[in-house]
Amino acid sequence: MLCVHDLTMRFGKLVALDAASFDVQEATIHGIIGPNGSGKTTFFNLVTGFLKPTAGKVTWQGRTVSGLPPHLVSRAGVARTFQNTSNYANLTVRENLVMASRNRIETGWLARLVNLKSARTEEAGHGRTADELLERFGLRDMADARAVDLPGGTQKILGVVIALATAPRLLMLDEPLAGLNSGEKVRLMEIIRSIRGDGLTILLIEHDMKAIMRTCDRITVLCYGKLLAEGTPAEISRDPETIRAYLGEEVA
Predict the structure, then answer these.
(1) Which of 39, 69, 151, 237 is the S-S candidate for 17 at Cβ 3.0 to 4.6 Å?
(2) What pLDDT was estimated at residue 29?
């Protein structure tokens, strides 16, 4: 479970997040919505170690992760994508997945330096992980293509698969549908739902309200740094404050 307790982030006089508190249940898809500037990406940056909170904390499975550097948050089982690309542009698709899989390196640096059998075995395992992901998500034919040469929609899918290669238990997706056509959106949302079927917890920032309402188990609404509402999609779609501040006619 992800627990957010009085999380606050100030940049000088600007309060980007103002004492927000809510919980995210394990093995659910939880949406974070709100107008631009409401603190959604700031929240993601606080959870994943790219910012340190001014006050408050975030715990994941009983461990405080807010304030940890990004690599330790990742090793705690938290992965994220970014609004733009989440890949190494000049590496191949397969190389991207192998690189991400190395987040789980357990052999010591000396064993890797002298190429001991334990290090070779572990590296072979990273390759198998990459191949399994390529197969599962329909990227096998693109394995040797450079990430930068992929269509935009495929790059978004690759970003999600790269995050999965780190073996997370919490996957945080920052506007994964932005810039995709309707067919690409359908495919990516199918992937997201299938991931939840593996028992992962998914935290999703998204402006496509139809996708959010059809996919999420619960939704948290932020508005100018404050927690405005929380509930099921049906509850959020009927909430007067949320409709007035953000939804309008989008869910009609």
Answers:
(1) 39
(2) 96
Report residue 246: phi and psi, to 5°. Answer: -145, -55
10 Å Cβ neighbour count for 199? 9
Stated pTM of the model: 0.86
Both structure tokens of 196: 């939840």
Q: How many CB atoms lie within 10 A of CB 245?
A: 18
Q: What is the pLDDT of residue 11?
A: 94
Question: Domain coordinates of the chain in residue numbers?
Answer: 1-77+168-252, 87-165
Report the CATH number of the 1-77+168-252 domain.
Answer: 3.40.50.300
DSSP symbols for 8-66:
EEEETTEEEEEEEEEEE-TT-EEEEE-STTSSHHHHHHHHTTSS--SEEEEEETTEE-T
Residue segments in the chain with a per-residue pLDDT below the cut of 50? 109-111, 114, 249-252
Q: What pLDDT is stored for residue 234 in this prediction?
A: 95
Question: What whole-number distance in Å separates Cα of residue 35 and Cα of residue 55?
Answer: 23
Report the SS3 class of residue 76: coil
C-beta separation of 7 from 56 below 8 A: yes
Rounded Cα distance between 32 and 133, Å, is: 27
